[in-house]
Amino acid sequence: MPELLVDFITSLDGYGSAEGWPGYWGLEGPEYLAWLDQSPERDYTILMGATTYRLMSGFAATADAASLAQLTEMSKVVFSSSLTEPLAWANTRLVNAETVEAVRSLKASGGTRGLRTIGSLSLCRSLLKAGLVDRFRVVVFPVITGSTGRERIYDGYPDVGLEMVASRTFDGRLQLLEYVPTVLTGPPG
């Protein structure tokens, strides 16, 4: 059965983006970018919601979209009841069905090497709550964006125990943390 990886980038204070800041908070370095290019999960099917699709496909449609060329080539599934076919971004399939059941079917079919998310905070939250997430990966960027931060990643999440399975430092400042998540019914003990 293919694994499902929830993949986030975050500021130290848990934001997925910040107003006025560039992508990756302007801190992506050569080591991190090389790892992104060589990551074995680059062949996974990407899962996203409509908001992330609109944002990312808009970036990909711009003339300077060379940095998103690899993402454009990847297989993508968008879960949405507001979007309609045909979708403009190459290699993207629209699913207008109950998300958790659709992802459960994708995992059970085994027809993909693996699945991973990009952005899509509510999608990730619902997949985690349903117990479908096999691995949870976070790359922490060394900034606190308390005044400008947008999209608090973990708001609305259940309590989750995390067993660390890997960690790495990129460019002397970015922290990659990988965990196996377990949704908890309440605080331990």
Percent helix range: 10-25%
Mean pLDDT: 90
Strand order of the largest sheet: 5-4-3-6-1-7-10-9
Q: What is the CATH architecture annotation?
A: 3-Layer(aba) Sandwich
Most strands sheet: 8 strands, mixed
- Low-pLDDT ranges: none
Rg, Cα atoms, Å: 16 Å
Strand fraction? 25-35%
Oligomer: single chain
Elements, N to C (H/E): EEHEHHEEHEHEEEE
Q: What would you say this structure looks like, in words?
A:
- The protein is α/β, with parallel strands linked by helices and 189 residues long.
- It has helices spanning 30-38, 50-60, 69-73, 99-109, 121-129, and strands at 3-11, 15-18, 45-49, 76-79, 92-95, 114-117, 135-141, 149-152, 160-170, 174-183.
- It has one domain (16-183): Dihydrofolate Reductase, subunit A.
- It has an eight-stranded mixed β-sheet.
- Strand 9 and strand 10 form a beta hairpin.
- The model has no long low-confidence stretch (mean pLDDT 90).
- This is Dihydrofolate reductase.
- Pfam families: RibD_C (PF01872).
- Residues 3-175 form the Bacterial bifunctional deaminase-reductase C-terminal domain.
